[in-house]
Design a protein that fits this description.
By secondary structure, the chain is an alpha/beta fold. The protein is built from seven helices and five strands. The radius of gyration is 15 Å and the shape is globular. Bound molecules: shikimate-3-phosphate.
Length: about 170
């Protein structure tokens, strides 16, 4: 088991749960850099996530995602917002655990996730109600492996960031 890295936090959860928004606020509060994994991947390819999926498919995207995860995990201190599928790949779960970083699942009610994702066209895995439900059901067992669960229900992003700060790990 690697040493605990209390200055490395991974935010995880389904598309639309607020990982990036909350992550930026949390990083500001902590005075740490914020890293958005999807942004790192897009910058590396010079393409949007949607274009990467369309041009090269999900398997290739997952390879890029894993490489970006390994690279960004060298940073400390850092707040890292994962993609919705990052922590739903067992090798990534194992890798993140080995880093000793803290994992926080932003648990958001399904109807809120749905409402947020419904009108966005930059999420290639968000297609319809059925695919949304299946993905969520598949991923919940992984998200539950996080060190901490923070319910976002009824909270603004700043309130979620405050909840994370109150976890007593910083
Ligand atoms: C994905 C979620 C997206 C992005 C990609 C795949 C997923 O990130 O990484 O479209 O598999 O759920 P967000 O959760 O930030 O939307």
């Amino acid at each position: 088991m690697s040493r605990q890295r209390r200055k490395l936090v991974y935010l995880l959860g389904f598309m639309g749960c607020g990982k990036s928004t909350v992550g930026k606020l949390l990083a500001t509060e902590l005075g740490w850099p914020f890293i958005d994994l999807d942004t790192v991947i897009e910058a590396g390819q010079g393409l949007s996530i949607r274009a990467i999926f369309e041009n090269s498919g999900e398997v290739f995207f997952r390879q890029l995602e894993r490489a970006a995860l390994i690279e960004t995990s060298k940073s400390e201190p850092a707040v890292i917002a994962l993609g919705g599928g990052t922590f739903a790949q067992q090798p990534n779960v194992d890798f993140i655990r080995e880093t000793g970083g803290i994992t926080v699942w932003l648990d958001c009610p399904a109807e809120v996730l749905w409402a947020r994702c419904e009108n966005m066209d930059h999420r290639p895995l968000f297609r319809n109600a059925e695919s949304f439900r299946c993905l969520l059901v598949d991923r919940l067992p992984y998200y539950r492996l996080a060190d901490f669960r923070v319910s976002t229900e009824g909270l603004e992003p700043a309130g979620v960031a405050q909840q994370i700060l109150r976890l007593g790990v910083f």
